[in-house]
Amino acid sequence: MRSGTPKALHDLCGRPMLLWPVSAALAAGAGRVVVVDTPARALEPLLPEGVELAVQQQPDGTGGAVAAAMAMLGSEGGASLDPAAPVLVLSGDVPLVSAEAIGELVEAHRASGAAATMATTILEDPTGYGRVVRDSGGAVERVVETRREGDATQAEREIREVNTGIFAFAADALSATLPRLSAENAQGELYLPQVLDLLRRDGAAVAAHAVADERLVLQVNDRVALAHVRRLAQAAIHERHMHAGVGIVDPDATVIEVDVQIGQDTLIEPFTRVATQTLPAASTARLSKRWKPPSPATIRPPCGEGNGAFFTTPGATTSNAQSRAVSVSATYSVLPSGDRPMPFGVRMGCATSTIFDPSGRAK
Prior knowledge:
Blueprint (H helix, E strand, L loop, with lengths): L10 E2 L2 E2 L2 H9 L6 E4 L14 E4 L6 H12 L12 E4 L9 H14 L3 E7 L8 E4 L5 E5 L9 H4 L3 E10 H7 L16 H8 L4 E5 L12 H21 L3 E2 L5 E3 L10 E2 L3 E3 L23 E3 L9 E3 L11 E2 L19 E4 L3 E5 L7
Parallel strand pairs: 3-4, 6-10, 11-13, 12-14, 13-15
Antiparallel strand pairs: 1-2, 5-9, 6-9, 7-8, 15-16, 17-19, 18-19
């Protein structure tokens, strides 16, 4: 990512990228959710209540990360781990996986009776992804990493079916195989897909579950990929609101963060940003987390470049004489009313702003 910020903490539509798969796992009904972090524990303050943190002491690859998570799941004081229960492995840099896709993988894993089931997809450009190698009968033989020269042959690099980094394992099979992983590869890391090789050698079944919608399993490894995934996520957010009765005049010129709630019949006009976090006045004025646009309402951009959005509701009036100057950065957003939920909204002109309540009295 070429950034001082850990990849998993990069923002994706108002939510750290890591929390997208965490939210999907919780929505899918996961009994326990464990997030793996470095010893710095930078992710811990962001985790929802009930989500556990495991520490990977050394950066020794995906296999080492899963080993740390399994140690947490089997630790004393935690809920006992059913050896026959499926253990799902998600990647923090594959944010668009949905609760539905997770449920489908778990069902496919149970139906196959396999020790491991890998989610795969077909990509036009598989650069950076591990390739899925199948035998003459079509069964999964192994996954070949392609990050460094020497990891894969040219023929293997030309394969377009890729490992998405999402797996379902039988808990006992995974626990027994992880200690046998080897770091004998170009990066000197413990690759989780090597578990599949070892299981096959032991005579256990390994299955693949094809994900038809590749957008759900796209991986973010740089800012170009993040921008692409953000466009897909934003389009899905817009569609969700529009299906719920929100009018968005120009979705390509509108930004709505993922956790925003908007009332039915609200109309959002072009060049508007609706956000869920309150930022300092010197940066960006944004919507309070506790504020929900009433229904119906209209949100539109200001007349002047660099001011915030214009929000109003039919019947509300304001007085220019009572307005006051507001410092807003060059973005389009809605100004929060301090720490209080906004009673009605904010009207911002080219240089002034009026905060008003339903009675029409300016604040």
